[in-house]
């Protein structure tokens, strides 16, 4: 018993120590805005309206109210400072590792193999994405709930008490409400019934040979409520993904190509488990897969499966571990294609547990006759865990911010238009507009159908005052995606810059009809309405923007610029302060705050902002001009 406490403590300490560096990481511009930083409901923290929204929304193409409530709780506790959000994910990951260790000890009474499974789970670089990416909170949260549900089920299986069964059912429901990938949980329970619970075996040698079949039927009947929740969750998930436009159509991802990619992906995940290198945030879906690779992967998967069947009676954990891996990956293997990825590191968070179980128990059994067995296993195990911890430590560095993860992903993948676009957004936010413009152009060279890239090019042209060029980009974006709310908003801003106020108002109203929760179009519409002399309506939109609040650096800057144009410099200053709090290195926020401070006759503070601009972006001549105007160097 004492060794279990020691191993539990060691597991928690090493997990927290390795992942603690995420406390210095930023939010990233891939999904984090939709889940936290740019979500107008989540950013208000825990509210009654937010609670109701969490249970009715399919935002981000998913229905996962428990995940939404988790993010709202983080905002309530830490605001929009990323350190707290990251550390909650780290703690949940450590809890998941501990729960896995304690579960395997309960099931097998084997402390050391259980520890190595949990340590591999905790320290493997493939799991960095689930922990270091705030938007993937649903991974660690759903896993914790799944493991708690399994603990309850084990209590029921060993004692027969209905409380354990009901607890497992309730926690499974909560887990589905965190991430619907848990739909395979009833199968996991059946696999645990086979090994190590051994609930399929006859009660005594005298029982007839068909009793295992009857036992299986009883176990299936026992899982009926779990399967019903699975079906319900699957239906809601498919609805949410269709509604959100996340599910790829057959013309974009033909079924044959999906099957080919899935077969290869099953094997690639195993390869990455054994040799975790060149890990990125997104691996593009292929245009084709070589036939030799598909056939080779299929034959190798069949060979592994035949070996598992061949040795399954002698080593039953091989059956449980292998089928755990195959089945839990099935919802995300790409047969139902969601998003633009061919595979994703985060999808291995739960499936690899099965392979870790099979490997650790197999090594334990195979080494039973070795001389110096304990020393060899201890030394080899320590070397593996130290290596994985070091690789995870290095992998975490790539997740420091949007620039680092995008740059690394582009280095290890090809033709990755989604990440090329996001890299451009990251450069744009840092003030490198020329670099961003080049990357958005590169995005369109890879994928000419990217409405988002056209929209981003339009935004840069508006910033440069090139309104005719911006108009062309926004029109191309809307030709591709007619209900693109951000493109409509940009079009409205462009038309206003061209002096076409009536058309600008119509475009901005169309944007707000599609998405009424973004403050920027309200600000731009208010400005256009003021120009048209519709002061009362303009004030209404300003109030709505104020209620929504600056949910992003860009929104805060836009709001501040709008207020500064009206001479409301004190209010503008508040907005720029908020933008800098969200992004301390924002060139635009510092420059605009410097201008406002200068107009408020606070030259020393203004000069500090202009120096910050030059520190981040040395080529910004406007900042040098302001310093000269203020008599500063």
Automatic annotation (TrEMBL):
Residues 1-20 form the signal peptide. The chain crosses the membrane at residues 83-103, 110-127, 139-156, 168-192, 224-242, 263-283, 289-309, 321-340, 346-363, 375-396. Pfam families: TPR_12 (PF13424), TPR_16 (PF13432), TPR_4 (PF07721). TPR repeats lie at residues 451-484, 485-518, 553-586, 587-620. The lineage of its organism: Bacteria, Pseudomonadati, Thermodesulfobacteriota, Desulfuromonadia, Geobacterales. It comes from Geomonas diazotrophica. SMART domains: TPR. This is Tetratricopeptide repeat protein. Keywords: Membrane, Repeat, Signal, TPR repeat, Transmembrane, Transmembrane helix.
